[in-house]
């Protein structure tokens, strides 16, 4: 898939316990010739060439690199999102439901977008009120990270075998 802002993305299916997913993520990055990221004090991974983001979930492992801040998240649309809804969905998320409908898939898109946005900064994005949706389309959106005052380009991608939603959030340069 094409990414903007000179970003690169790699990913592959991967199940098993978290320890195996983390090992597979490192192995995938090694095969691709990507440097092993260092960690900032807040846990955010960084590489000498710029920014990176890592995710594992929904049966997938994903890594992204970019000269500008980037965040990725991958999750399966599961019932646990409905149970956690009150912790991450608020009235300001209505524009997403207006475009995509009220369903578990939309909840997964909201969750992954907010998680990816959080990873752009490494901290400081409140999951209930931290994003203001400026424009929402079927497969993409622009949103403003409220505290940071930064516009994010967000895209969603449906992965298959296994099925999951990948969200990519990139700060506009």
What does this 3D model show about the protein?
With 173 residues, this protein is α+β, with helices and mostly antiparallel strands. It has a single domain, classed as Alpha-Beta Complex (Ribosomal Protein L22, Chain A), CATH 3.90.470.20. The chain is built from four helices and ten strands, in the order βαβββββαααββββ. The chain has helices at 18-31, 79-88, 94-100, 104-121; strands at 8-13, 38-39, 45-47, 50-57, 60-66, 70-75, 131-136, 140-145, 150-159, 164-171. Strands 1-5-4-3-2 form a five-stranded antiparallel sheet, sandwiched between helices. Strands 6-10-9-8-7 form a five-stranded antiparallel sheet. The radius of gyration is 15 Å and the shape is globular.
Low-confidence stretches: none
In which range does the helix fraction lie?
25-40%
How is the main sheet built?
5 strands, antiparallel
Gap between N and C termini: 20 Å
Global Rg: 15 Å
Give the number of domains.
1
Number of strands: 10
> Within the CATH hierarchy, at the fold level, what is the topology?
Ribosomal Protein L22, Chain A
Counting helices, strands and paired strands, the structural category is alpha+beta
List the helices and strands and how they pair.
Elements: E1 8-13, H1 18-31, E2 38-39, E3 45-47, E4 50-57, E5 60-66, E6 70-75, H2 79-88, H3 94-100, H4 104-121, E7 131-136, E8 140-145, E9 150-159, E10 164-171
Antiparallel strand pairs: 1-5, 2-3, 3-4, 4-5, 6-10, 7-8, 8-9, 9-10
Helix pairs in contact: 2-4
